[in-house]
Specification:
The chain contains eleven helices and 16 strands. Helix 6 packs antiparallel against helix 7 and helix 7 packs parallel to helix 9. By secondary structure, the protein is of the alpha/beta class. Strand 8 and strand 9 form a beta hairpin. 28% of the residues lie in helices and 15% in strands. An eight-stranded mixed β-sheet has the order 6-16-7-15-14-5-11-10, sandwiched between helices.
C-alpha cells in the first residue's frame, strides 16, 4: 500500500565523486488523501512570479473588447487565447509615481515608488530602484519555504543604454542592489540540479539520474499508479534537459554570451532560449525549489532586434522611428505574447496534485510603458496569470473607471499568491485596496 511521504524528500547520490540531489515533483504520496493537503505545510505550494517585457505595447489594439468574464482578446493578445481562463487583463490604470521615460514606469510597476536617481547621462538620467522589487516582497513572505529564496531568469540579452540598473535588471533587493537574471541555461541547470557534468562524460551512459537509480527504484515501489506515472514523466523531463544541454555548446568563449542556445544566422534564437529556460523554470517550480521568481523576457528600453517579425533595428529604436501605425512594433508585441504563452502553457501542462502548476501561481505580467512611441504611463498594460490556488478567478477583464493606481493590480497579484500584504507601494504609489473583481 502506498505510504505518506514528506514533501522535502529528495533522491540523493554520488556522480563522479560529487554529491547530487534530485528534487521530486508534487506527488499524491505527499498529501493526506482525505484532505489533499501537503504533509508538511497543510496546503499546496503558492508561487508568485513576474514576467516582464520592455517597450510597452500598441495601446490602440491592446485593450480587450468587453469586461468581466468572456472578454475578447485583441490580435496582440491572440496567442494567449487558449489560456484565457487563466489570464486576467487590467486596463485603464496608470503609474502615479512620476513621468520620466522608462524609468518611472519600470520602478513604479515593480516597486510602487519613484525611481532613485543616481546622476545624469547625455540628455537623460541614471537611476536605480529606491526599494526592493515586488518579487522580493514575495520572497520575504516565502522565506525558508523552499531551497531557493527566488530565481531570476533572462531570455533576450541586454541591449540597452547606460541609464542605470533600472534599464538592465528586473529584480532588486534595494537601492543599486540588482539580482541579475541568469541567461545561461547551463548555469541555471547546474545551480538547480548540481555540478556540471564533466565534458568527457558520456551522458548516454551516466547522468544525475544514474546516481540515484537505486533510490528511484525503491521509491517507485512505494507509490500508487498515478504517482509512478508522474515520477516517470518528471525524470524524463530531467533527462531531456540533460541531453539538450549535452548536445549544444556549454562553455563560454570570449566575446560571446554564455549559454546553450546559440544565435541563429538571423540573430538571437529568442524562441529557443525561451523554450529551454521555460522548461527549467517550470521544472524548478514543479520540484518546489522556489516560491518566488522573475522572468525578464526583455529589459526596460530593450534594443533586442525582433527579426522574427521583420525588424532590422532594435525594438527601442523602432518604437521611436517606425511610421504609424507601426506594424513591426505591433507584431513584436504579438511575438512577445507568443513567448509568454509558451511559458504559461508549460505551467498548465504540468500536473500538480489534482490540478496543474498554473493553477498554483499568481504571475504579474507587465512592461514599463504603455506606448513605446509616446512613453505614456497611462493605460498601463497589466496581465495577471494563474489561479493563485483558487484565490484568483482568472479569465476576467477589469477596466478601471477612473485611471486607478497600477499598484492596486500589483497588490492583487500578491494577494493571489497568498502573500499577506495589507498595503503596497510608497507615497504616490501607495495603496491599501486591491481589485476584488479579479478574485474568486
Amino acid at each position: 500500500m502506498p505510504t505518506l511521504l514528506d514533501r522535502r524528500t529528495l533522491l540523493r547520490g554520488m556522480l563522479r565523486g560529487s554529491a547530487v540531489a534530485v528534487a521530486l515533483p508534487a506527488l499524491e504520496a505527499f498529501t493526506d488523501r482525505g484532505s489533499r493537503a501537503f504533509a508538511t505545510t497543510g496546503a499546496g505550494p503558492d508561487r508568485f512570479g513576474v514576467w516582464f517585457w520592455g517597450n510597452g505595447v500598441k495601446p490602440d489594439n491592446w485593450v480587450p473588447t468587453g469586461t468581466g468574464t468572456g472578454y475578447t482578446m485583441t490580435s496582440q493578445m491572440a496567442p494567449l487565447a487558449p489560456l484565457q481562463d487563466y489570464v486576467s487583463v487590467v486596463s485603464g490604470c496608470e503609474i502615479k509615481t512620476a513621468t520620466h521615460p522608462h524609468h518611472s514606469g519600470m520602478t513604479g510597476i515593480l516597486t510602487g515608488e519613484h525611481y532613485h536617481q543616481l546622476g545624469t547621462t547625455r540628455d537623460t538620467i541614471v537611476s536605480t530602484f529606491a526599494r526592493q522589487s515586488v518579487d522580493q516582497d514575495a520572497a520575504d513572505f516565502f522565506e525558508g519555504q523552499a531551497p531557493f529564496r527566488s530565481l531570476e531568469v533572462g531570455i533576450t540579452r541586454f541591449r540597452g543604454t547606460d541609464e542605470g540598473s533600472t534599464f538592465q535588471h528586473l529584480s532588486h533587493s534595494g537601492v543599486n542592489l540588482p539580482n541579475p537574471s541568469e541567461y545561461s541555461p547551463t548555469a541555471l541547470y547546474q545551480r538547480l540540479f548540481g555540478a556540471a557534468l564533466p565534458p568527457d562524460l558520456d551522458t548516454a551512459r551516466m547522468s544525475v539520474l544514474d546516481a540515484v537509480r537505486d533510490q528511484t527504484t525503491r521509491l517507485s515501489g512505494r507509490l500508487g499508479s498515478a504517482d509512478k506515472l508522474r515520477l516517470e514523466q518528471h525524470l524524463d523531463a530531467i533527462r531531456t534537459l540533460e541531453l539538450r544541454l549535452a548536445s549544444g555548446p556549454v562553455t563560454c568563449t570570449p566575446g560571446k554570451d554564455p549559454g546553450s542556445v546559440p544565435d541563429l544566422p538571423q540573430g538571437e534564437d529568442v524562441a529557443g532560449q525561451n523554450e529551454v529556460m521555460s522548461d527549467l523554470l517550470v521544472l524548478a517550480l514543479a520540484c518546489d525549489l522556489t516560491r518566488a521568481f522573475s522572468v525578464q523576457f526583455s529589459t526596460c528600453g530593450s534594443g533586442v532586434v525582433m527579426w522574427q517579425v521583420g525588424a532590422t533595428d532594435g525594438l527601442h529604436y523602432t518604437c521611436h522611428t517606425e511610421p504609424t501605425p507601426q506594424p513591426v512594433v505591433e507584431a513584436a508585441t504579438t511575438f512577445t505574447m507568443e513567448q509568454l504563452a509558451v511559458f504559461l502553457g508549460k505551467l498548465e501542462a504540468t500536473p500538480e496534485g489534482s490540478g496543474n502548476l498554473l493553477e498554483r501561481c499568481s504571475i504579474l505580467c507587465t512592461t514599463e510603458l504603455s506606448d513605446g512611441l509616446t512613453h505614456s504611463n497611462s493605460e498601463f498594460p497589466i496581465l495577471i496569470a494563474g489561479k493563485g490556488n483558487g484565490r484568483l478567478a482568472g479569465g476576467v477583464h477589469y477596466r478601471s473607471p477612473n485611471n486607478e493606481n497600477t499598484s492596486k493590480a500589483v497588490l492583487t497579484a500578491l494577494r493571489g499568491a497568498g502573500v499577506v500584504a495589507p498595503s503596497w507601494g510608497v507615497d504616490a504609489g501607495y495603496v491599501t485596496d486591491h481589485i476584488s473583481d479579479l478574485e474568486a
